[in-house]
Structure formats: structure tokens, C-alpha cells
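FIELD: query
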Amino acid sequence: MSLNKLFLSTFSRYPSRVAFQFEGREITFGEIEKRAGEVAASLLTLRVEPGSRVAVLLPNGPDLIFAHLGINFAGAVRIPLNPAYGERELNHIFEDSEAEIIFTHPEYVPRLKKLRVFPREIIAVGEENWVRIGGRGIGDFLVAGDTFCDEEVKDSELAMIAYTSGTTGLSKGAMITHGNLRSNIETLIKFWGWTENEKLLLTLPLFHIHGLGLGIHGVMATGCSCILKPKFDPEEVLNILNRGEATLFMGVPTMYHRLAEIENPSRFDLSRVRLFISGSAALSPALFQKFEELYGHKILERYGLTETIMNTSNPLDGIRKPGSVGLPLPGIEVRIIGEKGNYLKAGKTGEVAVKGPNIFKGYLNQPDATEKAFVKKYFRTGDLGFFDEEGYLHLSGRKSELIISGGYNVYPREVEDVINTHPKVQEAAVAGISDPELGEKVWAFIVPRGQESIEVSELKAFLQGQIAGYKIPKGVTLVSELPRNAMGKVMKNQMKPVSGL
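FIELD: result
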């Protein structure tokens, strides 16, 4: 069954069921089918063909869902865009993807018109009407109809081009197929015990594979209900969960950190929540333990990438190991490879490589980058990690962030996890700083707890005996917050050391 037919079968089973609650509005599966069908029919009037690229630059909300599904049903390829993107990023993506049409919020239109490159058709999306404001015509966009792509869409066909976060250089367009998305969501539904009776609270941004490929697609595939929010607010989230309105929450470590740091957490009863899931960045063992102590839940951590969607997960029933991203998902193979492409045994750290039906097709317009990304048909993730004796995967950080100090390898994640247990530390990040003697020296960037301050000597004394001496930071920079991207990953290339703080 194709991804489209999987969703359409849900619509036929539950036409009257409320799929989404959004800011006081209720949207049924029947309404989603109708609106997505109108979008698909309208795209076909603009001569959109299978394989045509259509961009979406919209904030969280029902219109983004209608646009996303309508593009899929028309057989076109969706390009999700972060509303925070600036001129440089948008010019690059439009030039690289050759997007023909864009759905966007009216407030974003002036920004688009200033670009050097933009699609031939701009559709301004409003609650009451969708309007063509340029290209080959001006006026209403939506037409009546329920046209869907007539033929069964093959698993090998492109569904989405998702641009990576681009922490170094320009972002690359990951070509994700219908089969990648379908196989992954079907696997996760079984692995996490996700049924039509679930009530999902979704505060993740929908331009990212986490919120879209897991959250929205999970709702579409199971027929469960979802409370969709424009953004994450910790007090609001805890109030919703306290009232028993949701049984499932998906978040990133930054969100769980803010939930754990809320004032007077004992006023919230989260016992009716079935499952808390975390991903997109590393969850520290200290935060895992604190969340369990406060709310009685062991967070289920999983591991994925834009190019692979989800690879591993801690089990629903079984041991959830703090500091581990769990076991390979059914049907997915995960290897640890050495510098020469050899497979490493348990306990040995190397690059994480993945193979399975979840792996993307390659990078758009970049055959060389695509070729370099694979070894023996395994995708090289760029993440460092190791398997323990029980087959659980532990991540050590990005390969590009590996610190080589005095000839020794230092994995930032290991040092960060220990620093985060210091009572004066709210959170920490560790990076390598150029040094004429050592090559690189280990440096800690720390967000102190409250009005606390921490000196290098104090940190060194705390770490002594817990980790090897060469791993202990040579300096500390106190910061009010760590720089992060939209999914909560720390942008270490933006961190600069300042001595004497």
C-alpha cells in the first residue's frame, strides 16, 4: 500500500473523527480529505505533474497539513521550508530545487519578492481563501474537486526534498521517497504501540522530518487525534498533560529540559500520559533521571536523521537505557565502521552507518556527495558511536566535532554527560579549540544554574577521577544559553571561547 493510500484508508474509516485540535478549531479526517483533494485538483490546473517541486513556507497549522497532503496527492514533490530562513538560504534552496510553486503565509510574501530566485507561482494561504498573487494568473487558487493522483505511487518515487540544517556550508537537499516515509511510520507505529486510540500533543515544527514524518504522518496512518500547537510552551504543555488530554508527547531535549526546570513541578500529574519520546539531539542521562524523578516517566529516546528518518529506538517494553538511543528498528541494519570501512565490535567507537528501507535516495544535484555518503551500501551518518554488549547504540557526537587533543580522541558527549551532573550546571557543551601545543584543547561552554558561577579549578576538581585527565576541559566559558538550531541541536561552530568568565 502506498503512502497516499495508507492515509486515504484512514480518511474512509474515520471521516467524522476529529484529527486535529488547533487553537480552538477542530478538523476532522473528512475535512482533511476534502481540503487536500481541493489542493491537489487546484495544483493540476496549474499544470503540476508527477515529480514537480512545490515548496511550503508556512507556520504550524491546518493549512500546512492541507498543502502537504495535497502536494502528495497530486503526485508532486514537497519542499518543506523553515519560516526563519533568510535571503541566502531561500535563494540557495529555490535555485537548487527549481521549485515551481510555493504555498506561503501572506506575511512572508514581501520577503519572497525580494529574493533573486523564487517559484513562478506564489500562493498566499489564508484561513478563508488561498490566492494566486503572481505568475500566470492572479485570483483565487482553490477549485472544487477531489482529484487524487490516479495511479498507485511507487515506493521509489520522490515524496519530499528536505534540506539539511547546513551547519557547515550550504544545506543539501535530501531526496526522500514515498517508501522511506511509509516503511518508517509503519515500523514506528508497531514498535511504539501507537493506535487509533492515542491522543498526541504535538508542539514540534512541521517543516522538519521529526514533526512531519513522525507526528503528522503518525496521525494520518493510525487515525488517532492530535492537539497541534503553533509552538512549544512548557506551562501550556504541562497543563494539557495534567488535564489528561493527551497520552503521547514527542519532544527534543531542550523541551524536556524546560519541562524539568518549571517552577513547582509537583503541581502537575502526568500519570495519564502513556509515552514521552525524545530525539533530534542527545538527551543527557542527568536529564533522563531528573525527568523520571519529577514526573515518574522514563523518556523513550530514539535516533534519526533527515536522510534516514528513524534508525533506532529504546524499546516500549524493556530496558530504556539513559544515554543510549536504543536498538536498531526492525528491518534496519546499523553498523559501526572504522576509518578503513571495517566493521567494529561492541565497545569500539566509530562512525554509525545505516542500511534499510528508510534510507534516502541521495542528495539533489550532488552525485559526488551522495557517493561519499555511502560505504558498502550503508549510509555514513557522520555520527560517532558504539554498541554495548546488549546491542544498545550509544552516540558520542558528530565525527566533525571529535576533539583530538595531544594525540588522544575526546568524544564531547562523554565529557558533557559528566559535566551536566554538577549541581551548579544547568547544561553544558564541549568543543575543541585550536591549540599550538595540543593541536586542540578541550573547552566547556556552560549555562550555570540560576545565579551560580563555576571556575575552571572547581570544574577540574569535580571531573578528576570521573574521566581521564586529557578529557578534562582546559577552560570554561559561561553563557546565558547555548546556540541551537530549530530542532534544539547545539550549533558548536557558533561557540567562541572567552577566558576569565
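FIELD: remark
The first strand starts at residue 18 and ends at 22.
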